Amino acid sequence: MVASASAAGLASFIDASPSPFHVCATVAAELLDAGFAEVAETQAWPAELGRCFVRRGGSIIAWSSGFGDTFRIVGGHTDSPNLRVKQHIDRVSAGLSTVALEPYGGAWLNSWLDRDLGLSGRVSVLDGDGVAERLVKIDEPILRVPQLAIHLSEDRKGVTPDPQRHLDALWSTDPDSPGLLAWLAQRLGVADTDVLGWELMTHDVEPSRIVGAEQDLLSAPRLDNQATCYAGLRALLDVGETTRPPSATQVLALFDHEEVGSGSQRGAASDFLASVCERIVLARGGGRDDYLRVMAGSFCASGDMAHATHPNYADRHEPGHQIRLGGGPVLKVNQNLRYASDATGAGVFEQACRRAGVPLQRYVHRADLPCGSTIGPITATRTGLVTVDVGAPQLAMHSARELMAVADVPMYSAALAAFYFSADTP
Ligand code: ZN
After folding, report:
1. Could you tell me the pLDDT band of residue 155, with boundaries at 50, 70 and 90?
2. Helix then strand then coil, % of the chain, to nearest 5
3. Domain interval for residue 94
4. Domains: count for the chain
5. What is the CATH number of the domain that holds 37?
6. Fewer C-beta within 10 Å: the chain N or C terminus?
7. From CA 84, how far away is CA 98, in angstroms rounded?
8. Distance 77 CA to ligand 1 centre (A)
């Protein structure tokens, strides 16, 4: 098995991709380089759909046709929790210009304080009678949310920020500053009044780094879930490099809005994956019945990060299911279906790991703590696909800065590449 994924490659991928729109742009650029063609949902698709991809906002689906009918789908999500810009942006408080921010998803708020923040996302601007989209990526430290001094906290134990009152970022010491929107319009070369809409978010501008005395850890933002986006992309590209093409069509489906429940025009609960799969079948000359038969024989490995056992909080983890950083990919099982894994999906993924020669760890959440969820159960519900929830181990999930083991990056990608070769199961 070829394994082109590395922690250094993941670090560059993450640093290039501060927003879901940039994840899609980074993935699209790699796919175009590898000879994939972009198709649009608004156009008729050609009959020969070899290696293509399609974007819907911050979501992207790519596929590489095999000689059989069924699909092997690797899923993931492009969004990460962060602080996002409100609609009336510019404020003055205590004689200082500030920028109004609010949390997106389950951001671990303390981790966002005292960090040098850049800005990214997309903006719609006036374009003749219509609207044009512009990507924004500012890696300069233009924003900062300072902590309260310890001397001003009531018990000197620190303050958990209130999401409404404590997250505005400092913009300027000048209370008459023209503000963020005017500054951004100038950067984009448009008039302030031509900026019509935005999805703008902050990111830590500190680059990702390999750390640790043995250089065996990766310190980075957005590992949840760009580690899956990257590992899945490398897997899809590696499969294309092998001499034996897999029988199934390999699909990489990366969705926006997982961190807020996936219910959107482009989230995992939308029709995006089902409609792309159906259009692939239709383009081959199949009909609705063919599509339904193909889906019934297909599998999805839904990738999202997993909790490694924290050395300082080992008691927060299920004692019989300790997950080791650097111990290989993780199968996630939950009896209350917070994860979609069933015996069939687990069997297919365990077999893929054996073929790839990587160990598989098995995660179960403590029965007395509420378990998080992911796109696996949503994808299974939406499409009827046999779905297995998998991931790679990490610490500090949803922090502005997360941590994983260097060794897990190639192992995770190799397991996903092997999954693309899984045989049909009756
Ligand atoms: Zn996630």
Report:
1. confident
2. 30, 30, 40
3. 82-204
4. 2
5. 3.40.630.10
6. C
7. 14
8. 7
